[in-house]
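Regression test attached.
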Amino acid sequence: MPDSTDTPKTLHILNKAPDHSRFALCLAAQADGDTLLLIEDAVIALLDQQISLPMGTHALQADAQARGVGSTAEKHVDYAGFVALTEEHTRIINW
Amino acid sequence: MNTLIVIDRAPYGSWAGREGLDMAFSLAAFDQPVSLLLTGAGVHWAKRDQDATAIGQKTVAKNLSAAGLFGVESLQVDATSCERFGLTKEQLIAGCTLVESSQATLKQFDRVVFAN
Amino acid sequence: MNATPFPPRNNEGFLENPADWSPAVAQAIAQESDIELTEKHWEIIEFLRDFYKAHEVAPPSNRLFVKAVKETLGDARGDSIYLMTLFPGTPAKTACRIAGLPRPTNCL
């Protein structure tokens, strides 16, 4: 169980559109040093004027491309990058 | 590795929770430590006195109550969500533990998976 | 016509409706697999009947069947060799078929 004084960084994998109730919960759960990866329906949040995403939010390239969400300032990752992220984090939440 | 499966959807209307339950049972089958958390509308899973016969489904609380026998380590239920739906501990099936904060519970596990 | 017609079953020999089960039906299904039902078999069959009544589901896999038996009847019974000796093949499937439960969902 993680020690509270040294909480491990969490990878948050989010696949819900911004209007899904879990989207806001996920954003609220972001802690310093955590990583947010948007996949599937969640990538449209990159275009959502009403949503402010944490700095350095990642999005899965294939899902962004499928939905015509062009490259923005955010970091796009391919599937290998997705796997690498899961390896770099000891804690993962699939929202 | 400790896994928490979260069910936050109401029962019967979709397969989301049942898939979560299947995942929990499968992990338990292979002796992987796994717990369940019911929160939001998902707390209705644990209600006693359900009977889904008339809608042609299996009663979810009865399915859920097999979790302990299969080795699922704990069945946690969000207290605030229970309050919202006027549910007391007595109205829940045996083996439930009420938790004050779902957010704090999420932090206690290496892997957290929300049932779609 | 047979005096006690066999209740409807699926292509794998599982009862379509668990409520159609009776000890005589169990005997007949067991015979098809050359299993002579003993006290030891009946103990497990009874466990499965109770389990289904309480949980409305068959133990989904063989591993979970063994676990649930262990949890309920103790280590000696909840042992895969013991259960395989009583119910050859895939014990969860064979035992559920005889006990009139639906087919375990994850048993390949």
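Expected vs. actual: identical. DSSP finds five helices and five strands in chain B.
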